[in-house]
Amino acid sequence: xxxxxFDYLAPTSVEEALSALGxxxxxxxxxxxxxxxxxxxxxxxxxxxxVIDLGGIASLRGIRDDGDAxxxxxxxxxxxxxxxxxxxxxxxxxSKAAAEVADSQIRHRGTFGGALAHADPAGDLGAPxxxxxxxxxxxxxxxxxxxxxxxxxxxxxxxAIGEDEILTEVRVPKHTGWGAHxxxxxxxxxxxxxxxxxxxxxxxIDEARVGLTNMGSTPLRATATEQALAGASATEDGVRAxxxxxxxxxxxxxxxxxxxxxxxxxxxxxxxxxxxxxxxx
Amino acid sequence: xxxxxxxxxxxxxxxxxEPRMLLVQYLREKLGKTGTVIGCxxxxxxxxxxxxxxxxxxxxxxxxxxxxxxxxxTIEGLADTAEGDLHPVQEAxxxxxxxxxxxxxxxxxxxAVDLLGENPHPTEEEVRLGMEGNLCRCTGYHNIVQSVLxxxxxxxxxxx
Lengths: 281, 160
Ligand SMILES: Cc1cc2nc3c(=O)[nH]c(=O)nc-3n(C[C@H](O)[C@H](O)[C@H](O)COP(=O)(O)OP(=O)(O)OC[C@H]3O[C@@H](n4cnc5c(N)ncnc54)[C@H](O)[C@@H]3O)c2cc1C
Ligand code: FES
Ligand code: FES
Known about the structure:
The complex is a heterodimer.
Chain A lengths: L6 E3 L4 H11 L3 E4 L5 H6 L7 E4 L9 E4 L2 E5 L4 H6 L1 H6 L1 H7 L5 H6 L2 H7 L7 H6 L3 E6 L2 E6 H4 E3 L2 E2 L6 E8 L5 E7 L9 E8 L4 E7 L6 E2 L1 H7 L6 H8 L16 H19 L3
Parallel strand pairs in A: 1-3, 2-3
Antiparallel strand pairs in A: 4-5, 5-10, 6-7, 6-10, 8-9, 11-12, 12-13, 13-14
Chain B lengths: L1 E7 L2 E7 L5 H8 L18 E4 L2 E4 L12 E3 L14 H8 L9 H14 L5 H7 L10 H11 L9
Parallel strand pairs in B: 1-5
Antiparallel strand pairs in B: 1-2, 3-4, 3-5
Helix pairs in contact in B: 2-5
Bound molecules: flavin-adenine dinucleotide and FE2/S2 (inorganic) cluster (FES) (2 copies).
The site of one FE2/S2 (inorganic) cluster has 11 residues of chain B, from loops.
């Protein structure tokens, strides 16, 4: 199907994009890679009057080193995030998860910022961003503010980004040398996970961060598991007790792909696998 | 209407298009390049795969205006050699019988070319993963994978 008619704006700076957003308000929609928005427009689930394409804003693309963090521009594609040397060195978990998003063609277009702004609870990048304690840099009419990952994800498809704001970049604190694995459970290729677990560990095992995908309306951290993993040995017996805690405090959906209790079972099993693989065991 | 100027299969083109026009529609309906086909409504099947600035994209999930100033290659422009010649990946699909009804084939070939550009000597598993965004309704995956491996010059040793 073809989208409903809209006007198209292609700003070349964040300022221009913000003033277009300010002018058109709720009638406007930001277009990043389009890999979630265009299907929505084509199915006519949404019909904005104005589409503001961020594709022409060069400053939003790319990845840089910023001392104790790496900074990923919102318009950097999943493909580029996956392969970037800085990401592999300092935030391997994000590279591993980006590799699991959709398929090759969609990774060439879809962007890191677009996926996070979309905030699909089944999206693959929220849990790793949360687990690594990412900070979201959001530009608006009054300037720029930074939001912690724990405050960024508000609900299903809802984030801290206001209607007159744009996500410009994401700062990911360096986890240099941490092992990482993204364990994604899917029924068919190139689709969203039924449940997925993002795990990254220091040593084997001094410290661990574990994020859960599709275990609630937002990405979640398995904090009980993280605490139990500190000082655990990277063996099947060593992680079992910690992985058993992974579903604590989760509230997963029940749908055609699985009931909530089945998802909780998956979260425990996949956490065990993800942690062991992250620790290289 | 928005004016776009781009290069398609080696030729400069320019047109006024509605912003809502999809790249695949533009290629098929404005340029008559019906070699690129539409197989689904959900951006799942990959039949519409073309190259945008050298990397594979699903042209049903890109607006024509997003291709402004850029270069598009479709299945019709893949073989840039003399008339009648085929691109090595096209040749391999013919050689290995990599198609049944042929509907998925343009997309399969465009994705295979992208895959081999990034990884010239893939394993069978890497081929299967790299082609995961392309569906074959005839389920002819075995020979499709063989075709890609053949194009990479490494059918020998591939499992049946
Ligand atoms: C067939 C298919 C399979 C897929 N499989 C997966 C999968 O397995 N896992 C997965 O995680 N995703 C999957 N996706 C979605 C994909 O990851 C999208 O790329 C991503 O969700 C959106 O990124 P985008 O850049 O394309 O954003 P768009 O589609 O352009 O935008 C998405 C939303 O975010 C808003 N937005 C975008 N950028 C900004 C910004 N900088 N500031 C403020 N708002 C912004 C837009 O207004 C829109 O509402 C799939 C998509 C398809 C079509
Ligand atoms: S027609 Fe584009 S993916 Fe199916
Ligand atoms: S050959 Fe028929 S769809 Fe693939």
